[in-house]
Amino acid sequence: MSQQPPVSVRSLPRLLAVLAVVILPHVRNLPIWIPAFALAMMLWRLGVARRGWRMPGTLVRAGLAALAFASVLASFGSINGQTPGAALLVLMVALKLTETRSLRDYTVLTFLGYFLLGTHFLFDQSIPMIGFLLVCGVLLTAVLVDINHPDGGLPPRTSLRTGGLLVAQALPLMLIFFVLFPRIPGPLWGLPADSGSNAVTGLSERMSPGDISQLSQSDEVAFRVRFEDRIPPRPDRYWRGPVLWSFDGRAWEPGYSPNRQQAGTVANAERLLRYDVTLEAHRHHWLLALDVPMSLPADARLTSSRQLISRKPVRERRLYTVESALDYRLDPTLGDWARRIALSLPGTGNPRTRALAQRWRDDGLDDAELVNRALRMFREQPFVYTMQPPALGENSVDEFLFSTRRGFCEHYASAFAVLMRAAGVPARIVTGYQGGEMSANDQYMIVRQSDAHAWTEVWLPGQGWQRVDPTAAVAPDRVEVGLGAALPEGEPVPFLARGTASLLSVLRLQWDAINTQWNYWVLAYGPELQQSVLSRIGLPDWRSMILALTGLVSLLLTALGLWLLWQSRSAAPVDPARQIWNRATRRLQRLGIGPAPAEGPSDYADRVREQAPDLAPAVDALVQAYVATRYAGRAELTRLQAAERALPRRRR
Fold it and tell me: Which position among 409, 411, 451, 512 bears the catalytic label?
């Protein structure tokens, strides 16, 4: 077996420190015992190097590897997927330390560090993470330079400079491949089974008291919108999401939607708007669109409730274009089956609400007058709009309408819909978002989870489904201004929903604008965007793309090779004895007795004695001094310099 070259003792602490930095972000992704175990193994390996502790044998190492494998399997139920895979990789890197002795082991460990860097991008694709990965790439490359240098243990400044230079040389190649290498559909930085695992759930298909208010306490971005023409006024910014038909006495669910395969009909559509939506992943099927959507994005459909549904769960950020009508008549006619569903209530429960609705009906009010009567009740009686409503019991609507009178959007929407159904007016719940703020550069709109909202639709003869927002009757500022303006002091309003123009909020908007560009041009750089970009620069098809990729890479590698050759030539060591010899022989050449090509110093001295005896003493001294420097080194350099100075400037 060949003997592996040793590694400098100073290289181990550097390698361990860099690996600790590389593993650090996984503290938030993995169970804490995994990074803690890796840190403990690093400290143990340092103790082995400094205190001479024994390394474990083959059986112990095999047992530790089997135990690590079983621990991951027990913790995650699988070793497949990004989280179990990253956990297993961290443990195996830690266990590799138990057999790290030779240069080959150090090299393998360093390359495992590069693999670990790649796992971070599966969890976080933000700009700060890119900066972290670049820094770690330089550190790992510096370690690789350090452990492979024949002198070992280079000064940190030298190895870091070399590592940074190597990474910098790779960046142009990385950019060329990123832009020109053919893209594939689907998530680039994720595994199919785990895509969307970090998604914010956002809205749910079930709405019960407290759900929307809890969601509204989040500043997370739900989606961004870029309008092609004009921006709708705030009261028209109702973003339609799940439509709920079924009420069990406390919570609303989609229930049975009549004619699921046939989209709800729209008449008299006016004030059309076209826009692009960049929807954050939420792992559900629904897409958001302004009330009501008129066109279909690719791979989507419209339900009978006029709700946009993706055929696949939204597991990654999705960009789609849609057109909406702000003025419309939705379902001018209502079928018997749909009417029956839109009037259904549980057999029992909420008796006071049912009695109130019946009294209103007994007063001879028609459907439209019933709607106005309910809204007037919310507007005139002491109802409070709050994100901290009290808990409700079995008859939740009765308790809200007649006792607590404190609630959030879902309380008012639910109570209003139950009142309408009890009075014989078809009603349903629509959940989604209301509002949105413009970005720092006014180029797109940001809709956050704090804009989550619920409203109702009632079906009126001759008008179809009409949007009615009872929250607006209690807190008009919620629709006209925003959440922060509608809530009283002391409510847990998210920072960015407060509507205050503080420096921090301005900076947050600026940062969001930067991230949006990053998301669009880097993370969402898929086949469609690549084709669009390359077509603009004259690369319309795959053939021209591959030719450009090959040509640019070849050109870059050639330029890099020439530069390295030039660097190598300019960095050749200077020979001071040769420099002195060259100067001296040029002077002798001017005296008419210079050395011939390929003529050695001793032969030259012999010829000078024959052809120019007057110069022979000086030339002999010069040749002897030069030959001496070839064997004695710099010690004879002074003698050679003196011999050069003794050469005559003209012949006698």
Answer: 409
CA distance 300 to 309: 5
Tokens describing residue 214 = 């809890």
Backbone dihedral angles phi then psi of residue 456, each to the nearest 5 degrees = -125, 160
Ordered alpha helix ranges (H), 330-447: 336-343, 351-362, 367-380, 396-399, 409-422
3-state secondary structure of 172: helix
DSSP-derived secondary structure letter, 402: I
Helical pair 637-645 and 616-632, crossing angle rounded to 10 deg = 160
In 10 A of CB 268, how many CB atoms? 11
**In the prediction, which pLDDT does 8 show?**
66
The 3-state secondary structure of 513-548, one letter per residue: HHHHHHHHHHHCCCHHHHHHHHHHCCCCCHHHHHHH
Give 257's DSSP letter. Answer: P
Residue whose pair of structure tokens reads 């413009």 in the numeric block: 438
With both helix axes pointing from N to C terminus, report the angle between 33-51 and 11-23 in degrees, rounded to the nearest 10. Answer: 180
So what's the pLDDT on residue 187?
A: 54
Candidate list 194, 291, 398, 469, residue with the active-site label: 469
Task: Decide: residue 529, CB within 10 A, 0-12 exposed, 13-18 middle, 19+ buried.
Answer: middle
324 bridge partner residues:
273, 293
Q: Distance (Å, rounded) from C-alpha 153 to C-alpha 380?
A: 80
Tens-place pLDDT, residues 16-26: 999 999 999 99
**What number is the average pLDDT over the span 199-216?**
74
Residue 7 has pLDDT above 70, yes or no: no
Residues 436-487: tens digit of each pLDDT = 988 877 788 999 998 999 999 999 998 999 999 999 999 888 887 777 777 7
Residue 409 annotated in active site = yes
Q: In what order do the strands lie in the sheet with 445-448?
A: 289-290, 238-244, 427-434, 452-460, 464-468, 318-330, 266-279, 221-227, 445-448, 437-438
Number of H helices, E strands in the chain: 23, 16
Position 317 scores a pLDDT of 79
Whether 469 is a known active-site residue: answer yes
Do the strands 238-244 and 445-448 form a parallel or antiparallel pair, or are they unpaired?
A: unpaired
Lowest-pLDDT range, 89-103, 420-434, 553-567?
A: 553-567
| pLDDT higher than 70, residue 198 | no
59 burial type by CB count under 10 A (0-12 exposed, 13-18 middle, 19+ buried) = exposed
More reliable by pLDDT, 412 or 513: 412
Strand partners for 221: 448
